[in-house]
Specification:
Shape of chain B: elongated
Oligomer: heterotrimer
Order of helices and strands of chain B: HEEEEHH
Radius of gyration of chain B: 31 Å
Largest sheet of chain C: none
Chains: A mainly alpha (248), B alpha+beta (145), C mainly alpha (30)
Strand content of chain C: under 5%
Radius of gyration of chain C: 13 Å
Structural class of chain B: alpha+beta
Number of helices of chain B: 3
């Protein structure tokens, strides 16, 4: 519509639009290799933008009074070095990387969504499998009932090989379903057994120490006993019984 | 004269009295010293006997054997802890020296046939502990038979 | 009394103590 055209709007109401990119500027982006990582490309863009600015500024300043080209180029070169160092620092501390982090968060969200979808698929698959098993079980139960009713009608004793499952009447099925999970119970007991093992190890250590102490004490007592025995034997009379008998 | 004589006698008696008093004093001191010595000796003897009795009691308890000196210059050996049903039951025999100063065993209760053999072995070997060990074994065999 | 005490000490020294010593030594030998 005409009312939508930018040319028909008055100055203050004129819709602002972006200025077109200068061709030189777009060339800067294109000259940076896409094989580099994103943060490195951004760093290169910053440096090449500065150099481009310096190049564009130089001819304008050449005509001004007091302008020294050598000084200008020297300053531009040192500034370029500083900027390069600054860009390297930003690259190494991850500042440049943060500019791209939004997109990465989106990528991790995507992978989470993918896992959730997979889980839903598995759940659906297992549910349908479980239904199939239930149907199979019902089918076998019906067959079992048919066989038992047929057998009583025929009144013939025939040996029928029945799967153990068919022995299960409804009451037995209940009992089996409420069978405790022995594996889990054993696993729960494992912790207790671990503690018991620790305690037993401690006990064993203590008993060994006690046994060593007992041996050492016994040896010590034996030594002392032998020493005392030797001392007392030295003072013994050769025939105390006779002396005793002779004593009035 | 009579008076003079009496006076002399009295003087003499007085001197005698003094010397007797001195003697009595000496005797008292001697008595006190001896009493002190005897008391010390008594205490020492008691102490020694007490210690000896302790060791005798220990042996008696550990060996299950009591040794007594009895009338007629005999030694009596009394064993206990032989009968498991009655540990206090005593098993005994006597030992003395004959005219030739050899060991002679007698009066065993209960009677042991082999006691005479043990006596001969003791006379030859003079090994008292083996002799007593054999007697104990013999008494034990009597109980178990 | 003193004589009696002296005799008592003598008896202990010459008979009782030696007898106890011999008994103890006999036990030790056994």
């Amino acid at each position: 519509r005409q009312s939508w055209r930018r040319a028909s709007m008055k100055d203050t109401n004129r819709r602002k639009s972006l200025a077109p990119f200068h061709q030189g500027i777009t060339e800067l982006s294109r000259s940076i290799s896409v094989d580099l990582a994103e943060n490195k490309r951004l760093g290169s863009l910053l440096l090449s933008s500065f150099q481009f600015s310096v190049q564009k500024l130089e001819p304008f300043l050449c005509g001004t009074e007091g302008f020294s080209l050598e000084n200008f180029r020297a300053k531009a070169s040192s500034l370029s070095e500083e900027l390069k160092h600054f860009v390297d620092t930003m690259e190494s501390n991850g500042t440049l990387q943060k500019c791209f982090e939004d997109s990465k968060e989106k990528i991790s969200d995507l992978s989470l969504e993918k896992s959730v979808t997979e889980m839903k698929e598995y759940i659906t698959k297992f549910s349908s499998e479980s239904e199939t098993w239930d149907q199979l079980l019902l089918h076998y139960q019906k067959e079992a009932e048919e066989i038992t009713s047929r057998a009583s009608a025929e009144s013939k004793i025939t040996e029928v090989e029945i799967e153990p499952m068919i022995y299960l009447g409804s009451s037995q099925r209940e009992v089996l379903n409420t069978k405790p999970n022995y594996q889990k119970i054993l696993q729960n007991h494992n912790r207790v057994f671990d503690y018991i093992e620790l305690v037993m190890d401690e006990l064993q250590g203590s008993m060994k120490q006690l046994s060593t102490f007992l041996d050492e004490s016994t040896q010590c007592f034996q030594k002392v006993s032998v020493q005392l025995g030797k001392r007392s034997t030295e003072q013994l009379d050769p025939s105390p019984a006779r002396k005793l008998l002779k004593l009035h | 004269d009579d008076l003079l004589k009496l006076i002399a006698e009295v003087k003499e008696k007085r001197q005698e009295l003094t010397s007797l008093s001195a003697k009595i004093q000496d005797l008292k001191e001697e008595y006190a010293k001896k009493k002190e010595i005897i008391s010390t000796a008594n205490k020492a003897n008691e102490e020694r006997l007490k210690r000896l009795q302790l060791s005798v009691d220990l042996f008696k308890d550990r060996l299950g054997l009591e040794i007594r000196k009895i009338y007629g210059d005999k030694l009596q050996f009394i064993f206990t802890n032989i009968d498991p049903k009655n540990p206090e039951r005593p098993f005994m025999f006597s030992l003395c020296l004959d005219e030739e100063k050899n060991y002679q065993v007698s009066d065993s209760a209960p009677h042991l046939e082999c006691l005479a053999d043990f006596q001969e072995k003791l006379r030859k070997t003079k090994n008292f502990s083996a002799f007593l060990a054999n007697v104990r074994k013999a008494f034990t065999a009597v109980v178990y038979n | 009394e003193l004589e009696h005490d002296e005799q008592e000490v003598d008896r202990t020294t010459t008979i009782s103590i030696p007898a106890a010593v011999y008994v103890a030594q006999l036990y030790r030998r056994i």
